[in-house]
Amino acid sequence: MSGNGNAGATVEENSPKMRVIRVGTRKSQLARIQTDSVVAMLKALNPGLQFEIIAMSTTGDRILDTALSKIGEKSLFTKELEHALEKNEVDLVVHSLKDLPTVLPPGFTIGAICKRENPYDAVVFHPKFVGKTLETLPEKSSVVGTSSLRRAAQLQRKFPHLEFKSIRGNLNTRLQKLDELQEFSAIILAAAGLQRMGWQNRIGQILHPEECMYAVGQGALGVEVRANDQDILDLVGVLHDPETLLCCIAERAFLKHLEGGCSVPVAVHTAIKDGQLYLTGGVWSLDGSDSMQETMQATIHAPAQHEDGPEDDPQLVSITAQNIPRVAQLAAENLGISLANLLLNKGAKNILDVARQLNDAH
Q1: Phi and psi of 22, rounded to 5°?
Q2: pTM, 2 dp
Q3: CB neighbour list of residue 210: distance below 8 Å, 6 or more residues apart
Q4: What is the pLDDT of residues 202-236, one digit of tens each?
Q5: Which of 21, 28, 100 is nearest to 318 (CA)?
């Protein structure tokens, strides 16, 4: 990241210290907290660089009266930010990874996936139900708010005595609706978001995989950049957390091969142990009555190495990770594809097609 190299320029003008890195983000408090955490890591690694945070509203932030699954736009929380990236108004954008589609528009890539925080879902109860669990909420009268078909499908199956209803807005808005409107007994949110906001004390119950598997990429932050901007790729690439990266490549490959999205209930659970990557994936009907899930594993332990020759396409599921062994990345991608094929061969496509049709019809 050197200067322009003019003979008459001073050392200071050619110094990286003169460069300002512009970072795009959504305007919500959580998005700013997440972006600040990434900028703090980059500053610690590059004390000579300056960073400017540019916040903007996205389509998903503005349309709050419609369920996410009904809007029919894959880039609800990313399109405006990508437009700024394309116009060179920002150099990188920080996202919740679960908001990023498995296929990004041409010219963009995910240049870093930071270490994943708690990927599970959490239940926040109305003050009058503090101390309860979903299982012990009163029958017939309890309404649980969630903006996710994935959560509603799994939890309806597990807790048939509860009613699930869509709730939209940022975390602050949804908590306010819970506390003030008397409409919801509880709401389901990502545990990572609550923890990043410092609201751990509102978590009444953590939902483990046997109750509710999580969304692809949940709990991880992704840094989106221009695919041809090698300077910025080098800058952010050091933030890749190898285990999180491999888990998320497998998850995203699984979702991509299923052709899933927020309009159908698809969920995952990943773990790495003793050089093995374990991926559990599942699909559900909208009401949770029909479901299918399987687990597969792959060896992903590989020594650090430099493969010979450039890759024709360095991206896997729109992720570029030049400092992580390629063989491990390919193993993770193949695991996701293999698991998706296993489910599709067992009839998952019918479950997903019916879920899509029902979602579109309502």
Answers
A1: -95, 125
A2: 0.88
A3: none
A4: 999 999 999 999 999 999 999 999 999 999 999 99
A5: 100
∠ Cα 323 329 333 (to 5°): 155
Has 65 been annotated as catalytic?
Answer: no
> Among residues 49, 93, 100, 48, which one has the least CA distance to residue 74?
100
Contacts of 182 (CB under 8 A, 6+ apart): 126
DSSP 148: -
Q: Which residue has the tokens 């109860």?
A: 125
Distance CA 329, CA 22 (A): 29
Which residue type is seen at 215? A
Residues 6 or more apart whose Cβ sits within 8 Å of residue 312: none
Taking 70 as the pLDDT cut, the residues of the chain under it are: 1-18, 58-77, 260-262, 302-313, 362
Q: How far apart are alpha carbons 339 and 250 in whole angstroms?
A: 9
Q: CB of 99 within 8 A of CB of 29?
A: no
Q: Of residues 36, 61, 99, 312, which has the active-site annotation?
A: 99
Q: Given CA atoms 170, 172, 177, 179 in this order, what sign does their dihedral have?
A: positive
Q: How far apart are CA 24 and CA 28, in angstroms?
A: 12
